[in-house]
Amino acid sequence: MQVVEQIAAVREVIAPVQRAGRSVGFVPTMGALHRGHLDLMETARKECDFVVTSIFVNPSQFAPHEDLTKYPRPKERDLELCQSVGVDLAFYPTVDEMYPRGAVTSVIVDGLSTVLEGAIRPTHFRGVTTVVAKLFGIVTADRAYFGQKDYQQQLIIRTMTRDLNMPLEIRTCPTTRDIDGMALSSRNAYLSPSERTAGLCLSHALQRGAQMAADGVAPGVIAEAMQDDIEATPGVVLDYAVVADPWTLTDLTESQSQMVALVAARVGATRLIDNAIWGPSLY
Ligand code: PAF
Fold first, then answer.
1. Which of 261, 263, 262, 258 is nearest to 281 (CA)?
2. Residue 162 belongs to what H/E stretch?
3. 2-173: what fold?
4. Ligand 1 mean position to 154 CA, how many Å?
5. What is the dihedral of CA 191, 193, 194, 199, to 10 degrees?
6. How does pLDDT run across 16-50, given as a tens digit for each residue?
7. Span 186-276: which CATH code?
8. So where are the chain's domains?
9. Which of 30, 61, 82, 136 to mutate to test the pocket of ligand 1 (most atoms within 8 A of CB)?
C-alpha cells in the first residue's frame, strides 16, 4: 500500500491505473477506523481493481464548539487497518494541502442540508460536500463508498453528484452494527460503559418502529413512540426521531412502500445517530 500526502502524488499514482483501463474505488474517511469503514473498503476491494482511501479530519465540517481537536487521529493503526483489507493507496493530506490559503469555494446542497442533522449542525453538510467534491476531483474514482449509517450524508452526496454531473457511482453500504445492534461510529469511543448501554436506546427504538411499520401503524404514531422510548432513557437527550420520505427527508403522515426512520440523541457529551430503511431496498 502506498501512502501519500500530496494531491499531485495521488494523481501520479492513479493516472497509469486508469490508462490501463482499471476501475478505481474510493472510500473517503476521517480515520479512527472501525469495522464499518473496513466493510466499505472490502466492498470496494471486491468491486474495483484499485482501491483508494482518504484519511482526513475535515475542519470545515466541524462547528467551532464541536470536537475537531479532540477527534481521534490514530495514524499508524489506521494505515495498518487499510493495508489489512487490501487498500492500494491511502491519501493522508494536511489541512494546508486540502485548503490552501485563498480557497473560497464551497458546495452547498440546498434543502436537504438544512433539515435534521443540518438543522442542528447548520454548517456541517456544507463542509462535507465541499471536501467530498474536492476529494472526488482529486481521486477521479469510478465508484465511491459510503455507509448507510450517515443516511442524510449519503443522500446529500448522491444529490450533489447528480446535480454537478460528477462522473462516478455512489454506493451506499449497510450499517455495520455490534452484536447488540449498536451502529458502529468513531464517536462510540467517547462513551463510558454506562453511556454505551444507554445509547442502545436508538437502535432499540428503530427496531420497535420497524415492528410497528410492519403492523401498518401510521408513521406519525411510530415517530412519537420512538421519541418516547428515547426520551424515557436516563442520561439520553433526544434531538429527533422521525419517519420520513427516503428521497426528500420530509416527515410522513401516511405509510408508503419505502420509508426511512432517522434518530439522533445526545448521550452525555456524545451525539449519536442511527437510521433504518423500511420497505424494499433503496440501493
Ligand atoms: O463520513 C465521514 O467520515 C466524513 O463526513 C467524510 C465523508 C469522509 C467527509 O469528511
1. 258
2. helix 151-163
3. Rossmann fold (3.40.50)
4. 10
5. 50
6. 999 999 999 999 999 999 999 999 999 999 999 99
7. 3.30.1300.10
8. 2-173, 186-276
9. 30
